[in-house]
Amino acid sequence: MNKQQTGFTLLEVLVAFSIAAVALIALMNIFSNGIRLSTAAEDYSRASILAESLAAQVGTEYGLHNTPANGTFVDRFKWKVEISPYTVEDVLLVGKQPAKLLHWVINIDWKEGAKKRSVHLSSLRLAPNQSR
Fold it and tell me: pLDDT truncated to tens, each residue of the chain (132 aa)?
């Protein structure tokens, strides 16, 4: 009687496990990169929101006389606000009152592992001229 045996050989099982292990390692690498990039995107979003919040306070909380101002947010994000006069040749008129331009710069810095990350905002804001 000649019976034919069915099933897998040990070599076929080892090859199948090796292929599955390589695929699993690749998938784990993809997922860990996705989580890392998601965390980085969340950090950039937080820093941008903080910078926009600080920008809204330019002219009310922060002016020429009390900058540069700096601090720390959530013990991680270090921020700095700098305001300086912006000179133009012509005097700007708002209604009938003279006005001046303020140039403001906001920097937010934080560390992500060993890497230093930052968000930088800069713009001009119209402010009443206090010299008259």
Answer: 556 777 778 888 999 999 999 999 999 999 999 998 898 899 899 999 998 988 888 877 777 776 788 888 888 899 998 888 877 655 555 566 666 778 889 999 998 888 899 999 888 887 766 554
Asked if residue 17 belongs to a domain, the reply is: yes
What is the domain extent for residue 58? 10-128
Instruction: Count up the domains in the chain and report the number.
Output: 1
For residue 101, count CB atoms less than 10 angstroms from its CB and return exposed for 0-12, middle for 13-18, buried for 19 or more: middle
Cα–Cα distance measured from residue 26 to residue 21, given in angstroms and rounded to the nearest whole number: 9
Place of tokens 């305001």: 83
The 3-state DSSP class for residue 3 equals coil
Distance CA 105, CA 98 (A): 23
